[in-house]
Amino acid sequence: MADLKQERAVRTRNLIMRAAAELFDEEGYEGASVSRIVKRAGVTLGAMYFHFDSKQDLAREVMNAQPYVIEPLLKSSGLQRLVDITLVWAHRLQTDPMLRAGVRLAVEQDRFGMHDSTSFEGWKDIMVSHLEVARAEGNLREGVSTEEVAQFVVGACTGMQLYSQLVTGREDLMERTCAMWRLLLPALVAPDADHAIVVDPDFGKASQC
Q1: In the chain, which residue ranges form alpha helices assigned H by DSSP?
Q2: 89 and 21 belong to one structural domain
């Protein structure tokens, strides 16, 4: 009985987060009222406030859910994993409301009184961990700072998606992401591993399941 109750609670929480993500993506934070969120989720207002203290708390959870949209899809490791994260990210930003909302909220959060760097720092820490694996595998050049590379990639991806959104509605985001890696990889990859990292624009599409 306890397990069933817990499953219902998880399902309700996921419904609320999915509904909120859809509305945050479509309308922004200001346009996504709590009443509209619970109506779309098909839950009560009480259920909403059981799981989340406020709309801002809900927005924070959506922002910080970004890695959970992408990481479970990947099996690669090291530097290839870092590349693959960005390729799947570039593809799924076309269609996945949870990811799209997370990115939008993270970029626009100053507008609704939040100053939370957790989503950016979370991605940075994940990327550092994969780069440290790459170092252990011998795929990184000597002297490369995993912290600096991770910070750069997070910042570059943030800027790229904004630029792409303005110019093409993100239709060219994959192309821009691949171009970033063509420029960056020669400075990162150890000479004897220069053919080991694959930048495949079709990888992100193949990983959608």
Answers
A1: 2-31, 34-41, 45-51, 55-63, 66-70, 78-92, 97-108, 118-136, 146-168, 173-188, 203-206
A2: no
